[in-house]
From TrEMBL:
Pfam family, one: LMWPc
Domain Phosphotyrosine protein phosphatase I as annotated: residue spans: 4-150
GO molecular function, one term: protein tyrosine phosphatase activity
InterPro entries xrefs: LMW_PTPase, Ptyr_pPase, Ptyr_pPase_sf, Tyr_phospatase_low_mol_wt
Xref: PANTHER family: LOW MOLECULAR WEIGHT PHOSPHOTYROSINE PROTEIN PHOSPHATASE (PTHR11717:SF7), LOW MOLECULAR WEIGHT PROTEIN TYROSINE PHOSPHATASE (PTHR11717)
Keywords: Hydrolase, Protein phosphatase
Official protein name in the record: protein-tyrosine-phosphatase
Protein family (similarity comment): Belongs to the low molecular weight phosphotyrosine protein phosphatase family.
Active site: 10, 16, 124
EC number(s) stated in the UniProt entry for this protein: 3.1.3.48
Cross-referenced CDD domains: LMWPTP
C-alpha cells in the first residue's frame, strides 16, 4: 500500500517543524506513514535543529539530531498528502506558492487538530526562552497524537 506522506512546515525548519516531525514519527508506523519537515525561509538550509529543540526533544526521548533544514518547495505539494503549518504566517507563505485547489486543500494549521476553527498558532520560540520550547513541545505532542490516531 502507498505510504501516507505528511509534511510539517514552519519558518526556519530548525525549531518547531523538526519537533513536529520527530514527535509524529514516534507515534506512527513508519511503514505506513512518511513524515518530513521544511521551512518557508532559506536561512537554515542544511543546519541542525536549534539546540533548544534538540534538548526538549531529548527530555521526552525524541531524537531529532539527524534532521537537517530544508526549504519548502512547490514540488512538496505533489509529494505530500497533507501539509501541516505551525502558524498563520507559514500558512500564508505556503498558500502563496500553491498552484491549484488540490494544493491548497492539503494545507492545514496543525493546532486545528486540538483547537478546531480557533485559528491558534504554535508560537515561534526562536527569540524566546527555553520555556517557549517546552510549551511548543506540549502543543505539538497533543496535535500529533490526534493526527496519529487516524493511522
Ligand atoms: P522555526 O523558528 O520557524 O520554528 O524554525 C525560527 C527559526 C529561525 C528563524 C525564524 C524562526 N530565523 O529567522 O532565522
Amino acid at each position: 500500500m502507498k505510504k501516507h506522506k505528511i509534511l510539517m512546515v514552519c519558518l526556519g525548519n530548525i525549531c518547531r517543524s523538526p519537533l513536529a516531525e520527530g514527535i509524529l514519527k514516534s507515534k506512527v508506523d513508519s511503514s505506513k506513514v512518511y513524515v518530513d519537515s521544511a521551512g518557508t525561509g532559506h536561512w537554515h538550509v542544511g543546519d541542525e535543529p536549534d539546540k533548544r529543540s534538540i534538548a526538549v526533544g531529548k527530555k521526552y526521548n525524541i531524537d531529532i539530531t539527524q534532521q537537517r533544514g530544508r526549504q519548502f518547495s512547490t514540488s512538496d505539494f505533489e509529494n505530500f498528502d497533507e501539509i501541516y503549518v505551525m502558524d498563520n504566517s507559514n500558512k500564508e507563505n505556503v498558500l502563496a506558492l500553491a498552484e491549484n485547489d488540490s494544493h491548497k486543500e492539503k494545507v492545514k494549521l496543525i493546532l486545528d487538530e486540538i483547537f478546531p476553527n480557533e485559528n491558534v498558532d504554535v508560537p515561534d520560540p526562536y527569540f524566546g526562552g527555553d520555556a517557549g520550547f517546552e510549551n511548543v513541545y506540549k502543543m505539538l505532542d497533543e496535535a500529533c497524537e490526534q493526527i496519529a490516531q487516524r493511522f
